Amino acid sequence: MTESATASPRTASTLKALIIRLHGCIGLMVGPFILFAALTGTLYALTPALERAIYHEALTTDPAESAGGALPAPLAQQIAAAKAYIEDDRTPSAVRPAPEPGTTTRVMFNDPSLEGGEHRAIFIDPTSLAVRGDLTVYGTSGVLPLRRFIDQLHRNLMQGDIGRLYSELAASWLWLAALGGLAIWAFSPTPQVDSRKQTRTAKRLRTRRRHSLLGLVLLVGMLALSATGMTWSQWAGGNFFTLLKAGGWGTPRVSLDLGTPTAANAHAEHQASHAGTALLNTGDIDRVLAVARHAGLDAGKIELRVPGPDQAWKVREIDRGWPSQVDEVAIHPHSFEVLDQVRFGDYSLPAKLTRWGIDAHMGVLFGLPNQLLLAGLGIGIIVMVSWGYMMWWRRRQPNTGQALWPLLRRLPPATLLALGVIALGLGVGMPVLGVSLLVLLAIDGLRGDKRAAASEAASGSR
């Protein structure tokens, strides 16, 4: 038998041992982060139903006050009611008209006492003009306080950018752990064990079989969660969107630049400069909404962003269900001309897939079925990681398993170089994964040195 023929099975055996060892290291070191991300993600998936119950009064109108089939008041009057409630004549930052009968209009104000991305939202009954709620909402999605709290736990442990490293670590390793588990299942079948045996080994092997089968069921979902979760990450997500933008596949946005004004518009802007925030009181916002509707924005859920100095109105659809309605237009604040328009149908395929992936990850793309699927996936990951720790606990003999470094040294130079190039590419694209891999190798190397020293000491004492 030739040397190359004998080297190939040896290389395959070493690679299998390397995958098994790496899968175990991922489970031990990254498993807690994946477990917590799955737990908070499951809670997040269930929040829409909880919010409808907790914030029912703010989100819906009083049937008694709205009875009689009265038409909604103009948006300008609804804004005036919100401003009267907060006893402040400031201009709101955005307005979300009631999406359907029986729901409230959301008038959002900037508040210096709130954190970045947060707004004070006043919920107005569009027919009676009664104030139904006063809550802090967050982000472009306008999430309510309960979901905001769980979202921050899930995203960054409520620790800002530093905390985001936890979720990026979990998302970066989840897909590798899933594919590693698939490889172990395919190339190292679990031995059959008599179900009547109650030894530690038999229990561990039964748990391993359940762990493997559950991993197979959840495989596609885990890969999808990992990919879409990394779009929010600070490093891998930033690199991803940079790549999209470089390829011309980024999410298009309307320009709010007013451009060079015509003579008529210049006169209107001169008059408006003396009007200040009184623009909304004249009913301009209702005219802006009418122009946006005429331009094709027909979703029930819509948001009007009040322009800053020398900017256009931005009106956008915010219905991220299926089919997605996220068109947007820019409207001149004085001439009410449509200056720019972006339709979802004109998005590139990568931009559409990114939008759908993020919305599916958030549980809004397909509504309740999407949320139930996410909850089931999260619970499944929690169970699977728990089974992984049960296997480790039942094995828990000292000095078991092969270290990574000796396995790497057994590989042929060409194979080792290929693995190095792959690891380097992944580390550049996903820096948190790259740095954590170096830490994992360092810890494994130190443990290997400690084992070797203990083994030599034991040999010398004989």
Helices and strands, with pairings:
Layout: H1 3-54, H2 56-59, H3 63-66, H4 75-86, E1 94-96, E2 105-109, E3 118-124, E4 131-138, H5 145-156, H6 160-187, H7 200-229, H8 236-246, H9 263-272, H10 284-294, E5 302-305, E6 313-317, E7 328-331, E8 338-342, H11 349-362, H12 368-395, H13 404-410, H14 413-429, H15 431-460
Antiparallel strand pairs: 1-2, 1-5, 2-3, 3-4, 5-6, 6-7, 7-8
Helix pairs in contact: 1-5, 1-6, 1-12, 1-13, 5-6, 6-7, 7-11, 7-12, 14-15
What would your notes on this structure say?
This protein is of the alpha+beta class and 462 residues long. The protein is built from 15 helices and 8 strands.
Which terms summarize this structure?
single chain; 462 residues; alpha+beta; eight-stranded antiparallel sheet; 8 strands; 58% helix; elongated; disordered N terminus
Structural class: alpha+beta
How are helices and strands ordered from N to C?
Answer: HHHHEEEEHHHHHHEEEEHHHHH
| Strand element count | 8
Beta-strand percentage?
5-15%
Q: How far is the first residue's CA from the last residue's CA?
A: 40 Å
The strand order across the widest sheet is: 4-3-2-1-5-6-7-8
The quaternary state of the protein chains shown equals single chain
Shape: elongated
Low-confidence stretches: 1-6, 262-281
Mean pLDDT reading: 88
Major beta sheet summary: 8 strands, antiparallel
- Tell me the radius of gyration: 29 Å
* Helical residues, percent: 55-70%
Helical run tally = 15
What is the domain tally?
A: 3
Summed up:
With 462 residues, the chain is of the alpha+beta class. It has helices spanning 3-54, 56-59, 63-66, 75-86, 145-156, 160-187, 200-229, 236-246, 263-272, 284-294, 349-362, 368-395, 404-410, 413-429, 431-460, and strands at 94-96, 105-109, 118-124, 131-138, 302-305, 313-317, 328-331, 338-342.
